Amino acid sequence: MGFGTGIFGVCAVIYLLSGGRWTVVIAAITISVLYNIEQRNTPKVAVQGELKEVKIAKKAKKKSSPIYAVDFTSTSYTPVSTSKIPRGSSPVLRSRAVRRSPKVFKASKPIQNVEEPSLTRSAVNLLDSQIYIFYTSLTGSSQRVASALQTKLEGLEGLKSKPKLMSLDDDVDDLEEFFMKTPDNGATKNIYVLVLPSYETDSPIDYFLEHLKDTYQDFRVDKYPMTALLGFAVLGLGDSESWSGEKFCYQAKLADRWMGKLGGRRLFPVGEVCMKYEGEPRTNEWIQNFASLLADDEPFYIDQDNDFEDSDKEDDSASDDQDTLVDVEDMGDVIRKSGTRGLNGSASNDMKEMVAKDSPTYKSLTKQGYTIVGSHSGVKICRWTKSALRGRGSCYKFAFYGIKSHLCMETTPSLACSNKCVFCWRHGTNPVAKSNWRWVLDPPEKVMEGALQGHYQKIKQMRGVPGIQMDRFQEAFQVRHCALSLVGEPIFYPHINEFVGMLHEKHISSFLVCNAQHPDNLAKLSKVTQLYVSIDAPTKKDLKKVDRPLNSDFWDRLMSCLDILRTVQSHQRTVFRLTLVKGFNMNDIESYADMVERAHPSQIEIKGATFCGSSTGNGNPLTMQNIPFYEECKDFVTSLCNELQSRGLNYDIAAEHAHSCCILMAHTKFKINGKWHTHIDYPKFFELLESGKDFIDLDYVKETPEWAVWGSDGAGFNPEDTKFDRKAEKLKNRLQREEQAKIALEQQAQ
Ligand SMILES: Cc1cc2nc3c(=O)[nH]c(=O)nc-3n(C[C@H](O)[C@H](O)[C@H](O)COP(=O)(O)O)c2cc1C
Ligand code: SF4
Q1: Which atom of ligand 1 is nearest to the CA of 142?
Q2: Which of 326, 381, 405, 630 would be a feasible disulfide site paired with 388, CB 3.0-4.6 Å?
Q3: Residues with CB under 6 A from ligand 2
Q4: What angle do CA 214, 727, 740 make, to 5 degrees?
Q5: Which residue's alpha carbon is at the smallest distance from atom 18 of ligand 1?
């Protein structure tokens, strides 16, 4: 009986009992309505009160949890066995799910705190879990693959419980038992692996997906029931020939998405296997990789908001803390305190460590996501590598030179630099030093091993991030390119030639960026795949303003470097790198042209500076007004091109990557038969290198793809990657949420 019908009946009775007096009826109605409001509000207030308590309890728990007491960006962390995975939904919320009280409340999201590290370590060994393998199959392939998975996991050393194989159609009577609640196995936590085909036509999978979606959208039940699991993974089977693009394995991708939305922690990227062309060898590969990662206790990035958002932070996460600016040559006390080692690691009282473990610099760099290798090198996974792993586009170097970002490692063997550039996004948190190497020196083998290890560790941590593409994830474990830039001055490292040689031995290409302040080191540099020189300003006065160099003869050093490029290093593929900052270095085109005339670089990369947030204490004077628009960069490049051509210098605009506000000019010798050839033929580079013969920049070129050529429709965006519009995505999600809330309120009012 509804509230309206009930009150009508009661009114009729009161009217009769009171002898037809309406005043009595009105008073009764008022009391009844007030009472009803009270009844409706009381439990709601209680729920809010409980939630508040839960939040406070969570806060307290978070503070005391060893997870939050540890800086996970540090590689020196040793896991404490009592570490707990932060859980999103509390026991209070789960018990409500069972009661199914028809109240609207906002379920709490899995714990997140942007200031905390975004990694979590497994509280329990994954091998201690009970694994459930769910499958559904119309023509038998998924069943076969699921059985193969069970067999493989059964043989896994250290696995405590035998994995359970369950058909979603025959063995699971009630989906709620597994996908609204999860089986209670006492202290043993559960892992779900779903092996799912996709069917465009009606099939039982539709029903299963509907169930997941309904659970998520049902305001009466716990929105995050899958947080009770230790984790999940989905392996999709499909047919990429008949159902290509979005349709390929679409139902496995949907299941992966809904499981994540329901609070599940993704243990491994969703597998997408074409049974027509790849078949069982490929499913076995997924099974093999999944099995080996089960035994791996590497921490995971927390899947926050189902919209992993970390990549852009790299550029603006620098600390404003003036205290973190340490001149390495003056690190004195800090370094002495940490103990010293001599050259090549031998003990000596004279040698300091460039970045000692207990120094503020170490703390600041690790906080920004660097892994410090040895005592003077660093590695960090760049935002483009993360983006490419998710199929969301590579950096401009893919458009210009064919570098795939998910195969690229960004590292430096020297964290110290001799400039304090105004646009440097490190905001001066890196160590600075003038010239000679005066610190403990790590051998190149140690730097190489540590850099690769640090890089692969960070890649591995990405395995739970939504949208990671299986193929790229696997490929990423074999670095193919090394960007020697990051922070500091790589050429400063006395063993730079050995280090580069070791990269080449592994067939890893080398892009080395130097700041044109160390002519001696530049002259001695051996062959690299591409040699960059930063040209930050066209005149001595401007260079002082922009780079804030430590060496007083900075201009002479730059000029010497230009001469070296034209002479000793003319065999290299050389690139000028210009970073445009409005109000600092965008005038005086003639002086830039003078420099090009002096050095004869193969190519010129022009990039608009990016804003790294305002600074207070570090003397960085940039504001948004100093960041040029793409149109302004284009105008600058056109003027420079005209100036060079008017002097008879054969340069032209070759390629662009509008997304990064970056344009490439090249010497016209790279335009072969009317087509730009700015891309690099990497196998050819190694072949030439190994032949021992002399060779030059033109010997290992490849044609630039049409989408990257200057003026193309794509403006440098590879059509194979999905352009990810974060704002549009967020707006869409918000509208969806508002619509759901409206429906929920309407249902409640009925
Ligand atoms: C009627 C029909 C519709 C299909 N629709 C899709 C689809 O939308 N996307 C896809 O990737 N594969 C699709 N497939 C391919 C199946 O998912 C694939 O053959 C899978 O291996 C079948 O698994 P099963 O043998 O476990 O049923 C379809 C196959 C059939 C027969
Ligand atoms: S080249 Fe630089 S920006 Fe591009 S992927 Fe490599 S490290 Fe990242």
Answers
A1: 26
A2: 405
A3: 382, 384-385, 395, 397, 403, 405, 408, 410, 483
A4: 25
A5: 238
